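re: ur question from yesterday

yeah so i grabbed the chain u mentioned. its 112 aa long if i counted rite. heres the sequnce exactly as i have it in my notes:
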Amino acid sequence: MSTTATTDHSKPPSSHGGGKRYRTFEDLEVYQIAREFRKAMSGVNRRLPSFEKFELGSQIRRAAVSLTNNIAEGHGRFHYLEQIKFCLNARGSLEELLSALRKNKVGAFTSY
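ran it thru and got these structure tokens back, copy pasting raw so excuse formatting
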């Protein structure tokens, strides 16, 4: 007895922990959280004093975008070591961002 299933073969599913299938990087919970964090950092940028907007604002923007981009790019890699590399890059971008916020005493991040 054979069963047939319809499957979208346009992109092989990735399996990341627990056997759950993620078709796109946007399905990843970590990406969704990082995207919300990136949006929050946009809000921080808008509230920066004008003398901080260029340098600090640019650094915040680049690191926040790098965070989500590395998660997305890692999802697109098929070898687990490459996936890990991009997750570590994303973590590095997050640490860079937090360091900039702490150094410049931005909001709640000064107490970390």
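noticed a couple things. The chain is about 60% helix and 5% strand. also Residues 80-103 form the longest helix (24 residues).
anyway ttyl
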